[in-house]
Model the fold of this input.
Amino acid sequence: MTRLTLTQLAWTPLGHGHCHHQFHLRDANLHVAAGEFVGLIGPNGSGKTSLLRCAYRFSKPESGEVHLDHHNLWQHSPRWCAQRIAVVLQEFPDAFGLTVDEVVAMGRTPHKGLFDGDTDADRQLASNALRDVGLHGFEDHTFATLSGGEKQRVILARALTQQPDVLILDEPTNHLDPRYQLELLQLIKRLKISTLASIHDLNLAAAFCDRLYVINHGKMIASGTPREVLTVELLRDVFGVDALVDDHPLSGYPRITWITQP
Done:
């Protein structure tokens, strides 16, 4: 059963704020199957964030449809979507003095009534999520005092506490050092939640993603397994850089070495 499907999406950025470098989306098609880890790659400003915003019901496409298990997202409430789709963005929320455990507990909000308190089950979910992201013992720390990498892991823990069907991540490894980049992506892979993530580091995308979509100038130009997609020709055409593509000596997935001119 397919979890998330984007069909013939078209969307135009509005205004001159943070979207003014984003290309218009044109006839974008994408699907994420149950338990699949799908990567979205492309140059800066190619439309990755715009597409993700359509996928989690933030930006309504001008045409096309977004379906979660055959349900059109725009025929359901934001709350319905939040019960099923969790999002980890590049920007961190204003936590206004909240502690780590209070931020993570917010992941239960879509599943609760207005005046419902946290249950023992809610607290256990939050505790498990913090342990999964390597932050057990940080519960009482103030979110604002954390490093960028620690904040990123707290936001992932909040998303896991939602118990989503689909996880959407926008450049999830941006703020992380190499150890936590690997640990975060290994965790996501191990959880087998249907995942769509824009990923800047193509070697990480090759190592962890089941399939990749390549977007450039707002249009999907390639899709397939990392081995099918990450070719010398595509990398030159899309990123404008020559590269050597060979097999990782230990794991066998494609490895990209950018060729720099002396």
